[in-house]
């Protein structure tokens, strides 16, 4: 297991502005963030920076006195944990899935609009107007797509008031994938509330997508739109498990808490495979691009993939989302950072400050409109 280190004082990020580190909000933020980072290696400069950013972000939200369900859930979770730290997370990543168990899982069909868009894309006689008509036929979907392309994430400089204009701005292939992702957000409506707060889940997913896009741009990794979509859908396998296997999923959640272990390890123990594996299988069934499927499959273990740098983007974005407390996916502990993945991106810890600032500036409006 990674060594545990407690920072003696906050790392200066330029955001502190004479913080009252002894205030109740600061103490609560420190306690929650320390819980999230319980198994993290704080001797790594990037992880240490994320600790400081996470503590600062939580303190700001606590001081605002606005109700934060995510912070309340984090505080409640860590308040119930014993102080000792078991060694359940000291295992090798990349456990082979139980293929017999996987064969019994019934996978959901892709959203209808995605199938229609895929058919249109394959027809060389179809135009951008035809693509726009398919998206526009679903008013709820069209509204979500327009809200997204009008967000600071795309920053076109002009208001996009039609799906046709959105297609022209983003491109037919990207708008198809974007529409698929937006459709998925309403595809899993019957997840039991006791298993997952879906608003918090999509906040984590959306923030991971936004962070992935920003990280790809900053690191000079191509196809930043793919990374946004990969981040948005990286935990989709968990929803499949919640929907298809609620009792086993509940056991995994309870085991992760009682044993203080990563949820994806508990999934492997209780179900035979984790959400990353089932997400990649689902993407293969839906015939999504291989790059997205591999991003989902390797988002916890990019170092064993053939394309470490490409898969490192969503890996780091997922960790940043957990560190900053931007939503919840069922995982309360910060997943371990792959040193190989971090090195492949060529980033500095200070880059994380700029990315976090940009993400936190754009996310509140996206949360309000999409989650």
From TrEMBL:
InterPro entries registered for this protein in UniProt: HD/PDEase_dom, HDIG_dom, HDOD, RNase_Y/CdgJ
Top-level taxon in the UniProt lineage: Bacteria
Gene3D superfamilies cross-referenced by the UniProt entry: Hypothetical protein af1432 (1.10.3210.10)
Region ranges (Disordered): 1-23
Annotated HDOD domain residues: 107-302
CDD domains: HDc
PANTHER family: PTHR33525, RIBONUCLEASE Y
Protein name: Putative signal transduction protein
Organism: Desulfocurvibacter africanus subsp. africanus str. Walvis Bay
């Amino acid at each position: 297991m990674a060594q545990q280190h407690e920072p003696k004082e906050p790392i200066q990020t330029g955001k502190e502005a004479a913080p009252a580190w002894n205030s109740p909000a600061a103490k609560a933020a420190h306690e929650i963030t320390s819980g999230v980072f319980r198994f993290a290696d704080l001797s790594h400069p990037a992880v240490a920076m994320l600790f400081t950013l996470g503590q600062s972000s939580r303190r700001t939200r606590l001081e605002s006195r606005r109700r934060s369900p995510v912070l309340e859930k984090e505080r409640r979770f860590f308040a119930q944990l014993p102080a000792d730290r078991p060694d359940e997370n000291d295992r090798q990543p990349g456990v082979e899935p139980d293929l017999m168990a996987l064969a019994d899982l019934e996978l959901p069909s892709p959203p209808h609009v995605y199938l229609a868009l895929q058919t249109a894309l394959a027809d060389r006689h179809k135009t951008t107007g035809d693509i726009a008509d398919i998206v526009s036929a679903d008013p709820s979907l069209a509204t979500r797509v327009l809200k997204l392309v009008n967000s600071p994430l795309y920053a076109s400089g002009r208001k996009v008031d039609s799906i046709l204009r959105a297609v022209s701005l983003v491109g037919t292939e990207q708008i198809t994938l974007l529409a698929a992702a937006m459709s998925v957000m309403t595809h899993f409506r019957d997840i039991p509330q006791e298993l997952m707060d879906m608003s918090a889940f999509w906040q984590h997913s959306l923030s991971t997508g936004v962070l992935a896009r920003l990280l790809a741009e900053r690191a000079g990794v191509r196809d930043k739109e793919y990374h946004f979509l990969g981040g948005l859908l990286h935990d989709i396998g968990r929803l499949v498990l919640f929907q298809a296997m609620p009792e086993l999923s509940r056991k995994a959640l309870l085991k992760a808490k009682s044993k203080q272990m990563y949820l994806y390890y508990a999934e492997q123990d209780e179900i035979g495979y984790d959400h990353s594996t089932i997400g990649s299988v689902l993407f293969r069934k839906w015939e999504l691009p291989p790059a997205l499927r591999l991003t989902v499959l390797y988002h916890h273990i990019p170092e064993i993939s053939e394309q470490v740098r490409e898969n490192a983007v969503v890996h780091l974005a997922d960790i940043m989302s957990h560190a900053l407390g931007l939503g919840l996916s069922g995982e309360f502990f910060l997943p371990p950072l792959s040193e190989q993945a971090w090195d492949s991106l060529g980033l500095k810890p200070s880059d994380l400050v700029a990315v976090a600032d940009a993400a936190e500036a754009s996310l509140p409006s996206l949360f309000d409109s999409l989650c």
